[in-house]
Design brief:
It contains 17 helices and 18 strands. The chain is of the alpha+beta class. The chain folds into six domains: about 30 residues, no CATH class; about 50 residues; about 170 residues, 2-Layer Sandwich (Nucleotidyltransferase, domain 5); about 70 residues, no CATH class; about 90 residues, no CATH class; about 35 residues, no CATH class. A hairpin with a 5-residue loop joins strand 17 and strand 18. Helix 14 crosses helix 16.
């Protein structure tokens, strides 16, 4: 209640419960005490006063983006007597000056997205996570897809670069996991999708990317080159996803995975958890998505390559081995990001792990010892100078054995024993167990006994296929009185190879 509006100062003060002197003081100056205080003057001299107008301000005008530490270093270079403790004072003064006199800054305009309209794709580097597969560092990145409205995410491990194959496979995996198609797809200026001829180029889409967009009925768009914030709906999500993976790895206690599939399953689990937190918005957006087509479209490249007498073929500076029976044939090879699928005509014959060159000046090798071991058994000394020798060994124990035998000075024996053990590993399907036995012997300081290992890993007697005789009537006619005795012959794997008449039994 304002007593002063109706009463004199003395009466108003009495009613309010304070002295008459306070009433007259308030009457003369109604400002609160905090506003009556005079600004406190400097207790110390300004260390920047001699340099501010003459040196610091000209530096700020000449180089608007310079950091405070850069200004301080320049000042101390010019005036060595300056104390580095003035940094905080310099920061406050520069920030205040830039707020009043600095250049205009870029403004981020937050966007509102309609459900079902926009999906975004991008690749992000995850080398900082330090992922290893069976102890070996994994050089890879993530393909990252996101819906702008709901925040639905999909991540796909990519072993190569930002190729069309990686984009097509990752995008299609995302759409089929989502169960629908947005009206528009946006990426940055990927060379796999855009030829980047210029802003005004009419035919900027690559043919394959245009076909991919047409298959799903999406309108392709992109942000301007070098301007990441135009794709901000996914650029910011990169950091959130990688932090979520980092947290999950810390809780897991190790960054090593037994296989690539295990790491991919781990990524899928983390992404699934993030999507579960947005289930309501994702369900709302799914209602606005266009339906999927009847099937996927091509997400691979295809080449026709001859198999040479070396037992393989070269593709993009990488040599791949294949079964030797394919020498002289031409294979139709489908190139995916992580694998090659090889066809002889329309018949699939082998699937190979995708390899990459070691460097710009050195190619690579993807070798499966099973493809060449039988030929190498006939020519074991070829192992000495084989160009892909180190890649031939499926496990470290085999290479260690070969090197140990060579250290004893007998190259012939080294080649013979190593090749025979690799043959044993292949024929008896005991690669891991045999490698363990070899390692135990080497750790004990002794060389493995080839005969003993053959005896140890020979098949059980009960499982050895035997020749069997059986009779059958041929032709199956009641009037036929002759009976043939037929012989079954099995191969080394126990499979029936052929059945032929052995002799004719007289009636």
């Amino acid at each position: 209640m304002n007593y002063r509006q109706t009463l004199c100062p003395e009466a108003a003060a009495a009613k309010a419960g304070f002295s008459k002197a306070s009433a007259y003081r308030i009457e003369s100056d109604s400002r609160p005490p905090s506003q009556k205080k005079a600004p406190r003057g400097r207790r110390r001299s300004d260390p920047l006063a001699p340099y501010w107008d003459t040196e610091i301000v000209p530096i700020l005008k000449a180089a608007p983006g310079i950091r405070v530490i850069g200004v301080l270093d320049e000042l101390r270079r010019r005036h060595r007597e300056l104390n580095p403790s003035i940094r905080r004072t310099l920061e406050r003064r520069i920030n205040a000056w830039r707020a009043l006199n600095g250049p205009e800054q870029d403004v981020i305009f937050r966007q509102q997205h309609d459900p079902g309209r926009l999906g975004l794709s991008d690749f992000t580097d995850v080398s900082a996570l330090g992922i290893t597969i069976a102890g070996e560092p994994l050089d890879h990145r993530l393909y990252h897809f996101r819906l702008a409205f709901s925040g639905f995410e999909h991540a796909h491990v990519v072993l190569g670069g930002e190729s069309f194959v990686a984009l097509a496979e990752g995008l299609q995996n995302a759409l089929w996991a989502l169960g629908g198609v947005p009206r528009e797809h946006r990426s940055d200026s990927l060379s796999a999708a855009f030829r980047n001829l210029g802003v005004d180029a009419r035919e900027d889409l690559t043919q394959r990317y245009a076909a991919l967009m047409g298959h799903y009925g999406m309108a392709p768009t992109r942000n301007n080159a070098g301007i990441a914030h135009e794709n901000g709906s996914i650029e910011s999500a990169h950091g959130h996803l990688k932090r979520a993976l980092e947290d999950a790895l810390l809780l897991r206690g190790t960054r090593d995975f037994t296989s690539l599939d295990t790491w991919r399953a781990f990524v899928d689990e983390i992404v699934g958890r993030r999507n579960a937190n947005l289930a309501r918005r994702i369900a709302l957006e799914k209602e606005a998505l266009a339906p999927l087509p009847k099937g996927r479209t091509t997400d691979f490249e295809e080449k026709v390559i001859p198999v040479t007498s070396s037992g393989g073929f070269i593709l993009r500076r990488v040599f791949y081995t294949v079964p030797s029976r394919l020498i002289g044939h031409r294979l139709r090879v489908r190139i995916f990001d992580d694998r090659l699928e090889c066809f002889l005509g329309v018949t699939p014959v082998v699937t190979l792990r995708r390899g990459r060159p070691v460097s710009d000046s050195q190619g690579g090798h993807v070798v499966d010892y099973r493809h060449v071991i039988h030929a190498l058994r006939r020519k074991p000394m070829a192992l000495i100078n084989l160009v892909y020798r180190d890649r031939l060994f499926p496990r470290a124990a085999y290479k260690r054995l070969f090197d140990t035998l060579r250290e004893h000075g007998d190259d012939r024996r080294a080649c013979k024993v190593t090749v025979e053990l690799l043959t044993l590993a292949h024929e008896r399907a005991c690669e891991a167990e045999l490698a363990e036995a070899i390692a135990i012997d080497l750790d004990a300081g002794r060389l493995p006994d080839l005969a003993a290992l053959r005896d140890r890993f020979r098949p059980e007697a009960a499982s050895i296929p035997r020749r069997s005789l059986f009779t059958m009537n041929w032709p199956p006619s009641a009037s036929c009185r002759s009976t043939q005795i037929w012989e079954k012959q099995y191969d080394q794997h126990g499979d029936l190879r052929r059945c032929r008449p052995r002799r004719t039994a007289p009636q």
